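Batch manifest, entry 17 of 40.
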Amino acid sequence: MSYQPGAGYPDLAAIRAWLKTPATILPDVELEVIAAAEQSAQGRLNSWTEVDLPADLVAAFYRRVGRHAAAKGIPLGVLGADAEFGAVRLSRWDAEVDRLEGPTFDHVVA
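Output type: structure tokens
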């Protein structure tokens, strides 16, 4: 699967500008994999009726990609053990993504 910009999803240049991360640090090949994964995840979890992605879901997409890119360099999601209170684990959830995607979230009862 590859990233499909359009219909409201930004192109790689716009994502890179939002991340403020040069291609020397995060190559386009890696950024495309991250963007594709987050686009797929967002599409499976949310539904919307507009043709283009609504602004709140675009903002959530940027945050999703940003978290994914930031966590790429953190082995097992653990931040250094030299922190004042020991090792800190990267949270699985981003409250801001939940807030932005909440109105379009597809609730499933199993």
